[in-house]
Amino acid sequence: MEKKVTLIGSRLAKTGNEFIYYGMLKECDSCRFKKICHEGMVVGRRYRILCVRSADHPCKVHEGGVKVVEIEESQEITMLIESRKALEGLTLSDSINCNNIVCENYFLCNPEGLPEKYRIVKVFKEKISCPKGYSLRKVVVSPVD
């Protein structure tokens, strides 16, 4: 996987943290660092911080400025899928998309940064309790190019 260099809010800049790139804000238009922040980033993709460098830079968006970080696109996402689809090696392009926002599993059923196509790399054995009655399994997936 290709490593990239970008800037991220100093408070968020911790090795191992993940974030989803949502695109450039209006405040970024006049910033001299906008190229390093946004070049090569894909809206909706999930990235993982590999290394945080010591330099600080000012930023109109992030209170406390930004730090230079090395990142890579995240290779694995944990999510919930229908039990009948929970097969290692299976390639999928959908998710549950449940609208029960008060459910403890909401973010696993609706993972942000999910690629268009992904492959199941691990299936957990335990079944997941679902208030809507769906038969669910927790899985780890990785993007398919």
TrEMBL record:
Species name: Methanothermococcus okinawensis
Database matches in InterPro entries: UPF0179
Descriptive protein name: UPF0179 protein EYH55_05530
Segment forming the signal sequence: none
Protein family per UniProt: Belongs to the UPF0179 family.
